[in-house]
Please model this.
Amino acid sequence: IVEVNNAVRTYRMGSSKVHALKGVSFEVREGDFLAIMGSSGSGKSTMLNLIGCLDKPTKGTIHINGVNIAKLNDDGLTDIRRDNIGFIFQQFNLIPTLTALENVEIPMIFKRLGPQKRRKKALKMLELAQLGREYATHKPGELSGGQQQRVAIARALANDPPIILADEPTGNLDSKTGKGVMELLSDLNRKGKTLIVVTHDPKIIEYSNTTIYLQDGEVVDEID
Amino acid sequence: IVEVNNAVRTYRMGSSKVHALKGVSFEVREGDFLAIMGSSGSGKSTMLNLIGCLDKPTKGTIHINGVNIAKLNDDGLTDIRRDNIGFIFQQFNLIPTLTALENVEIPMIFKRLGPQKRRKKALKMLELAQLGREYATHKPGELSGGQQQRVAIARALANDPPIILADEPTGNLDSKTGKGVMELLSDLNRKGKTLIVVTHDPKIIEYSNTTIYLQDGEVVDEID
Ligand SMILES: Nc1ncnc2c1ncn2[C@@H]1O[C@H](COP(=O)(O)OP(=O)(O)OP(=O)(O)O)[C@@H](O)[C@H]1O
Ligand SMILES: Nc1ncnc2c1ncn2[C@@H]1O[C@H](COP(=O)(O)OP(=O)(O)OP(=O)(O)O)[C@@H](O)[C@H]1O
Ligand SMILES: [Mg+2]
Ligand SMILES: [Mg+2]
Model:
């Protein structure tokens, strides 16, 4: 379902270059639960952004469901994203002027769900993400770090996407809440969703079926 | 050096109230290394913001070096903060339009350090925070999550403050880099700095000399 072939991503900084990814290749089959680990700055978020169609590789190819995303324009990328991918961002990327509930409803608006259906579904997603219903009306600035993280999780699940990409989804959670989130992701995987989770938490091994280790923009180990 | 006496912090949300802190009391002696733990939403960041003079309690008192901060106006709070406290924020709060180096230099400008001295000291702080020198010219949006976190750490140390408050300082770091940060904090503590660290990482116990557990805005356990 996801094929990464010699993906290179280079950033230009003035006269120098940052080689964030130096030629990464791997495959993810439908229904897999892949963990991506590696030290800070090793290229994990960069890799996830390529798979999530938020960025294009400098060289190499990324195929999502057989479609070469490097060949798409911005509209094409947006369509692929909206229909296939739920993304939990490392820094949440919530809209600060909207409530938690409205943030979760946003992807549903694009799917043209009516307001009653959206609200009901968004409340259910927040509950799945282990966030108490009383927080639905809080804006992100009125929530703790871990509560914001849970809103980001609920939003990623809003349209029931077949592929879920999670960038350090438990970084701001205590171990009990974090475990609840891992159980939720594991559950979604058992129901057939493909999961790619970037994390620093070694406990991911209890849930994933494959692990890739990145170091300085390269795959240094792959465990099945 | 820090005295918290029946600190209450209530937020108003429309017609309802959020009781973030319900009467918290504890003391921190100079040179202590206090860890504050507790589940997501339990009030840790709220508590740290009160101690860091970024917020005032709804009831109760906070004394920093014998000064009752509830009695200060905004200028008074700012002075106490600038002279005494280095704060590592849970969400970094870096200035997006400035480079990593400039972000670290900002507190030094208020101390009227000249540009050459500032630059030299800022580079040293980034090095202490384990961030490679090549990243000094990156803006926050050009840094990984864990690299931004390290810039936030370097900035908190910029003026060599006697009190360091850290809100989940290793949340975005792999275990090796995170351990390096913990060793740095421990080292500063050995040199006489007072440390208060909010964290979900149970390994903090290896470094702290006191631990407070918060649950629903109250202290439920204190271990010395
Ligand atoms: N816009 C950019 N311009 C220049 N360099 C960048 C940019 N974005 C990221 N980088 C660099 O690319 C490298 C990889 O970044 P990435 O965010 O993928 O790391 P990461 O593995 O997710 O790290 P972390 O665990 O800290 O989140 C880093 O060294 C970073 O400084
Ligand atoms: N401005 C605000 N308005 C209303 N409620 C708020 C506001 N800020 C925080 N809260 C609430 O206060 C409670 C405590 O928040 P706090 O940020 O202190 O938690 P925390 O222990 O740091 O959690 P985490 O581990 O997730 O960072 C939370 O339930 C949060 O929703
Ligand atoms: Mg990252
Ligand atoms: Mg917090």
The mean pLDDT of chain B is 96. The longest strand of chain B covers residues 16-28. The beta strands of chain B are 2-13, 16-28, 33-38, 59-64, 67-68, 85-88, 163-167, 194-198, 210-215, 218-223. The helical segments of chain B are 44-51, 74-84, 100-110, 115-128, 145-157, 175-190.
